[in-house]
Design brief:
The chain is α/β, with parallel strands linked by helices. It has 2 domains: 253 residues, 3-Layer(aba) Sandwich (Rossmann fold), CATH 3.40.50.300; 115 residues, Immunoglobulins (Immunoglobulin-like). It has 13 helices and 17 strands. It has an 8-stranded mixed β-sheet with strand order 3-4-2-5-1-6-7-8, sandwiched between helices. A hairpin with a 2-residue loop joins strand 12 and strand 13. Helix 1 crosses helix 11. The N and C termini lie far apart (56 Å).
Length: 376
C-alpha cells in the first residue's frame, strides 16, 4: 500500500484538485483508492458529491476518538464509485489541534487509524490543509511520499521550500523519511511566465519533479462544483488526460507487469518507423500553433528548452535531437495539448487512451545487417 500526501503551505495551488482527480484516475486503473480529506474546508468531500453537513461521522471523530468513544476509520468511509472511497471531512476538523493539545502521540493519530487498511486499499491519498499544523503533520507522519502542487507563482515555490523544511524537521525528530515530488499544476506553456516557472521547477528539483504537467482548464472548477471528478465529468478534456498521465507516472514507479508487457508489445511490433542514428528531425505543421515541444522516452517526457521546436514559417516547426539506437515512444505538446506525430504512421496504445508515436533508431550495425540480408 502506498500513502501519498498532497501538500503545500500555500493555498490555492490546486492541492484538492490534484488529490481528487489523481485518486479518481488511479481508481479507473483498477486500484482500490482511499481519499482522506484532512482539510476542515472539506473541499475534497464536496468535490466527490458529498455534503459535509449531512455526514454523520467524519475524520474529526476518528482523530479525536478515545477509549470510551472509539471511531475507527473504516466506519466513516463512503464509497464514491468503483474502487474509490472517501474519508470525509467537516468544519469540526479545525478544532482537532486544540482538542488534542498536550495529548501524547497526537501527530500519529492518522497513522494509527490507517494501520490495517493495506488489505483493502492499494493507494491512500491524503488531501492536506494549506498550513503546517497538526493535521498536515499527521499526514506527513502517515505518508511515505508527498506530492507538492506548484502553480505559476513564486509564492507557491516558496511553499515547497517551507514544506521541505518541515519534512526535514519531521525526519530528524522521528527518523521517518519522505520522498517529495513537486508537480507543475495549472501551467500554461503558451505563456513565457508558465514556461519560466516550469523551467525553475525542473532546475531546482531535477529528477524529483514529476514529468506530468497539468494544464489550466475551466472544466476543473465546473466538475468540482457539480461534485464530480474531472475524469468522470469530461473524459476528453486536456486536464483529464494530464491527470491520467500523472496516475500512469505514479504507477510506473512500481514497475507494474502491465508496463513491462506494454514495452514488450511495442518492441515486438513489425515495421516500426525507422530513422538513422544521429540527429533525428522532428517536424510539426500547424498554422494555428504557438509553441510545440517533442517529448518522449528519449528526454523523460520533459518539455524543456531542448525539446522545443523552432518555428520555420507558415506554421512549420522543427528541431533535431541526437538519439542512440533503440525504440522510442514520443508525442508532441502543441499549445499544451498532447498529440501524436501525424507524419509517423507507427503508433502504440497510450496508457490512458489515444496513441503514442513510435520510432526506431537503427545504428550502423543494424543497417549493414539489413543490407546484407537484402543482397542475399
Amino acid at each position: 500500500m502506498r500513502i501519498l500526501a498532497v501538500a503545500n503551505q500555500k493555498g490555492g495551488c490546486g492541492k484538492t484538485t490534484v488529490a481528487v482527480n489523481l485518486a479518481c484516475a488511479l481508481a479507473d486503473r483498477g486500484r482500490r483508492v482511499l481519499l482522506v480529506d484532512l482539510d476542515p474546508q472539506a473541499h475534497a468531500t464536496a468535490a466527490l458529491g458529498v455534503d459535509p453537513a449531512e455526514v454523520h461521522q467524519n475524520l474529526y471523530d476518528v482523530l479525536t476518538a478515545s477509549e470510551d468513544r472509539q471511531v475507527t476509520l473504516d466506519r466513516i468511509l463512503i464509497e464514491r464509485g468503483e474502487n474509490l472511497f472517501l474519508a470525509p471531512s467537516a468544519v469540526f476538523l479545525s478544532a482537532v489541534e486544540q482538542e488534542l493539545s498536550g495529548v501524547p502521540g497526537r501527530e500519529e493519530r492518522l497513522l494509527k487509524a490507517i494501520r490495517g487498511l493495506d488489505q483493502f486499499f492499494r493507494y491512500i491519498i491524503l488531501d492536506c490543509p494549506p498550513s503546517l499544523g497538526l493535521l498536515t503533520f499527521n499526514a506527513l507522519r502517515a505518508a511515505g511520499e508527498v506530492l507538492v502542487p506548484v502553480e505559476p507563482s513564486s509564492f507557491s515555490l516558496r511553499g515547497i521550500q517551507l514544506l521541505q523544511d518541515s519534512v526535514e524537521i519531521l525526519e530528524n525528530a522521528s527518523g521517518h523519511a519522505l520522498r517529495v515530488y513537486p508537480i507543475a499544476n495549472n501551467i500554461n506553456l503558451r505563456t513565457r511566465f508558465g514556461r519560466a516557472v516550469l523551467e525553475e521547477i525542473r532546475q531546482r528539483f531535477g529528477e524529483r519533479a514529476m514529468k506530468t504537467i497539468i494544464p489550466p482548464s475551466t472544466r476543473v472548477k465546473e466538475a468540482a462544483a457539480l461534485g464530480r471528478p474531472l475524469p468522470w465529468f469530461d473524459p476528453s478534456n486536456s486536464a483529464t488526460r494530464a491527470f491520467k498521465n500523472l496516475a500512469w507516472e505514479i504507477l510506473s514507479q512500481e514497475e507494474e507487469p502491465e508496463i513491462k508487457a506494454l514495452e514488450e508489445r511495442i518492441e515486438s511490433q513489425a515495421s516500426p518507423h525507422l530513422v538513422e542514428e544521429g540527429q533525428v528531425l522532428f517536424r510539426y505543421q500547424d498554422p494555428q500553433a504557438s509553441t510545440v515541444y517533442v517529448v518522449g522516452e528519449f528526454n523523460n517526457w520533459t518539455p524543456n528548452q531542448e525539446a522545443r521546436l523552432e518555428p520555420k514559417g507558415q506554421g512549420l516547426f522543427e528541431t533535431r535531437i541526437d538519439l542512440k539506437p533503440g525504440i522510442y515512444q514520443y508525442r508532441f505538446i502543441v499549445d499544451g495539448r498532447w498529440v501524436e506525430d501525424p507524419e509517423n504512421p507507427r503508433t502504440a496504445p497510450a496508457p490512458f487512451g489515444g496513441v503514442n508515436s513510435v520510432l526506431e533508431v537503427r545504428g550502423e550495425k543494424e543497417k549493414t545487417q539489413e543490407e546484407a540480408e537484402a543482397a542475399s
